[in-house]
Specification:
heterodimer; A: 114 residues; mainly beta; 4-stranded antiparallel sheet; globular; B: 113 residues; 6-stranded mixed sheet; 5-stranded antiparallel sheet
Amino acid sequence: DTAVSQTPKYLVTQMGNDKSIKCEQNLGHDTMYWYKQDSKKFLKIMFSYNNKELIINETVPNRFSPKSPDKAHLNLHINSLELGDSAVYFCASSRDFGSGETQYFGPGTRLLVL
Amino acid sequence: GQQVMQIPQYQHVQEGEDFTTYCNSSTTLSNIQWYKQRPGGHPVFLIQLVKSGEVKKQKRLTFQFGEAKKNSSLHITATQTTDVGTYFCAGRSSGAGSYQLTFGKGTKLSVIP
């Protein structure tokens, strides 16, 4: 019973392509996140949605567009992929957006742009 | 914006030695969380500290939150090979409207058997 799942686990693609990563959580949480982890392991928040509404939108190129069709899903679409987009992308969720909420991470999607 | 600094970036220890990672925030925190990421894995929540001066223990792991709620530490006694991984602190500013959890850059622990 996977709590936070992501697909695909690995994604290898050419520069300029458009790709999507899907995330689903079955924890009944209200808040979901996308993080980017670069080769140096630095975890950086990209987006956060609370009850399908965008609440955090860090300085991320507008080639990245999140979509939350419902509370349990937060997908990430990336247009015109660049070499620098290569990273591990983690989806996470928390019960709500309160200050004490634990974040539960998905297994990650390893994106390699050639 | 809020910054969370973590040192050291890397630590190599002999099995059985102790290990400590330190976390410092540029702003006062409402709480601090610690996560562990095993090689090839994803971050997993370890603990949350909320009160000034709080100390919590999990077996060989001891977590502290500073009196001023701007720094924290994780200490592992007598490391084992299962402790290998990257340890992240993550803090949320206590300012009004502060929603974002900011992660430190992590400390990568290697344990030499």
